[in-house]
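Fold this sequence, please.
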Amino acid sequence: MTDMMRRWEMDRLGRDHLVLRERSILTPGQHEVLIKVGAVSLNHRDKMVVDTGRGLALDFPFTPGSDLSGQVVARGGGAKRFLVGDRVISCFTPEWVDGVRPGNARTPAYRTLGGFFAGVLAEYVVLPEDWLVAAPVTLSDAQASTLPCAALTAWFALVERGGVRAGDTVLIRGTGGVALFGLQFAKLHGATVLITCSPEKIERVLALGADHAIDRHRSDELEALYALTGDRGADQILETVGGAYLARSVLAAAVGGRISQIGALDGFENSSPAMPLMMKGVTIQGIGTGHRRALEDMVRAVARTGITPVIDSRFALADLPAALERLDAGPFGKIVIDVAGEREEGRSA
């Protein structure tokens, strides 16, 4: 192993200020491990942090990215959760181990990798051992890197907090990472899944297992959903867009339905009509990824069931700007940076 590595950094906000720099490889301290990064998957949050900072107090130079898969190559003193050679993935909210999210009413915690903490878009990173979980043996690094944020968000909404079960009808908006993991997890639990998406993606979501797909541009989208559910509506909804779309989700929800508010693509101010919200007894739960214990539960489920993450495209580490442009375009599934140059084409999608 050389003493130097490459790492993406920015000295101020804006993707024009991203620079791939040579840095010394750090030595792990007490209860830390050094990870050789195999792959990093990108989230819309990463793009927002790079472009605007998303209101976070970033320490410059700042390295973006939160979701890695890699191999432990060295351990600091007292580190014992993993052995050298073990494959691991990162925790998006690393200090949240279980139970209720840290923080209080005035200041809910948002201490995440690639946000509050420096990110992982580098060839090597040093992290506390408690900020990691074992990677599923069934997945390549490219595939496993998609799990820490997008997959966990869908799992936490539908399984950990939503208790999705056979017979439920689940409505999911879009075809990004969270949406497609939500589709796979809902089907795993025996639910009927409806997707709203662009017309050119309808065949692909049906092939992935969706029971129905509705063109999101239809002016009668809500009527189409009522027709497909016999006027029952959706028992669970993954609201990945936010803003004014929350109102549509309230109207689409079944009596006693549950909406998981996840995304903010349409803005951070949500609105809803009050009467259907009250008369249908709809529960709205905010989802900001999930804790480490749920990630470990999900990893076991992924390994046992053979779920394969949907990867839209893969880029070399030096091609991060092109990967961000692809993220702008609205991918079908996840965007992955092959940090270690992995090219397991038979296992990548």
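The first helix runs from residue 44 to 52. The CA atoms of residues 31 and 79 lie 4 Å apart.
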